[in-house]
């Protein structure tokens, strides 16, 4: 199952609006790389990976087990697979397991974690989207949220350019809606969706540090992103577990930021 070794970096999760701003500061141990064991031209398997977003995807099956590399910070086992990308591609990845709480990390060629996800898939499965501003080799890490978790998993990933269904523009400034937690400016967009769809959204701006949140039909925040769109742009993906109207929130990372932004999203 394992083929190559290299050193990597591994920040983690803190469950706050600051997590992605801090993520580049973390350090971790070595990184075990896996060979690809299968690929397909069609979506595979579960409800999470049936979407049209997965056309051309590749799938790796494996297991977290004693003897794997172990995160020095968090005590969790992990496996890694090398990903070779072209500038501007978007990596979409899903990690599914019935044995442990799945967690994904993406590490760049300099050993920095540039993306992570815990539960944006159904149940406790992970779903990740990261725009890759530079070409080169990245490492996609399959791991667990809890330390020393073991069991089988399936990792599905694809490098793509998203066909956006909606492209909008706006401006955040005094007079905009204010975020209930910190008073930062925001706009909200209702999105009607069916159970089982996947939403991917991008927010870009040269004026402010973009921040995206997705609220479920009951108004609870279910997904968010700060910088996985590259630089200070946001790129967010989420599996939608029920039919209803979701709310996409275009926001700033810090209170007081103002400026124009572009918002794109698609449902698949």
Commentary on this structure:
The chain has one helix and 20 strands. The two termini are 32 Å apart. The chain is mostly beta strands and 268 residues long. The strands form five sheets. It has a five-stranded antiparallel β-sheet, with no helix packed on it. A five-stranded antiparallel β-sheet has the order 13-14-19-16-17, with no helix packed on it.
* Assembly state (oligomeric): single chain
Structure class: mainly beta
- Could you tell me how far the N terminus lies from the C terminus, measured between alpha carbons in angstroms? 32 Å
Proportion of helical residues: under 10%
* Poorly predicted ranges: 1-45
How can the largest sheet be summarized? 5 strands, antiparallel
Strand order across the largest sheet: 4-5-10-7-8
The radius of gyration is 18 Å
* Element pattern in H and E: EHEEEEEEEEEEEEEEEEEEE
Proportion of residues in β-strands: over 45%
Shape: globular
Mean pLDDT: 82
Count of separate DSSP helical elements: 1
Strand runs, count: 20
Which short descriptors sum up this protein?
single chain; 268 residues; disordered N terminus; 1 helix; five-stranded antiparallel beta sheet; mainly beta; 20 strands
In short:
The chain has one helix and 20 strands. With 268 residues, it is mainly beta.
Write the layout of secondary structure elements.
Blueprint: E1 2-7, H1 19-22, E2 30-34, E3 58-64, E4 69-70, E5 77-85, E6 90-96, E7 102-107, E8 113-117, E9 126-131, E10 136-144, E11 151-160, E12 166-172, E13 177-178, E14 185-193, E15 198-204, E16 210-215, E17 221-225, E18 234-239, E19 244-252, E20 259-267
